[in-house]
């Protein structure tokens, strides 16, 4: 198997918006991001980098994760213009009602991100079978279901991290039980969409 390469353009893009996010969080005294989300992002990026060394993820997937990080940081740190409809008390992108009262920016980020996690599971599974058995793995309903469940599991892990944030930080923009339910629904939609793409892409 060829040695995995780390695209410099992706590394540079992630480094730039990470520095910008840290600077914005410090300026805004956003302890939720400084204490929880930024450290977790760094750990998650490290895990993906280590997996990439073994799996050699596609550039498409790496860019998806880079983009996910950017829209996640923007969601919590970029303020909405006056007059934009938003949910709750925090006037930031994550609270923005993108369409009516049924689709928030937060839902879009969840769908995209955990759809990408489903795709990551597929590429990792396919590479593992290729390396261990010397066989090319083709998507089947069973394999896709496994990847979707894995993506949903990572989405549940994200909810646990948000719960920890609520426990250790007095004021967060996490939301309550209903918000968690909608987050999980958005995760499912993204995972299923990614699964369908993988199935038909072959």
The residue-averaged pLDDT reads 91
- Provide the domain count: 1
Strand arrangement in the largest pleated sheet: 1-2
Spatial shape: globular
Count every beta strand, where a strand is a DSSP E run of 2 or more residues. 2
Low-confidence stretches: none
Element-by-element helix/strand order? HHHEEHHH
- What class do helices, strands and sheet pairing give? mainly alpha
Distance between the termini: 20 Å
| Radius of gyration from CA coordinates | 18 Å
Summarize the main sheet.
Answer: 2 strands, antiparallel
Q: How do you describe this structure in short?
A:
The protein is mostly helical and 202 residues long.
Report on the structure:
Helix content is 73%, strand content 2%. The protein is an all-alpha fold. The chain has one domain (8-201). The protein has a two-stranded antiparallel sheet.
Give keywords:
202 residues; mainly alpha; 2% strand
Secondary-structure map:
Layout: H1 8-28, H2 31-55, H3 59-77, E1 97-99, E2 103-104, H4 105-133, H5 141-168, H6 177-201
Antiparallel strand pairs: 1-2
Helix pairs in contact: 1-2, 1-3, 3-4, 4-5, 4-6, 5-6
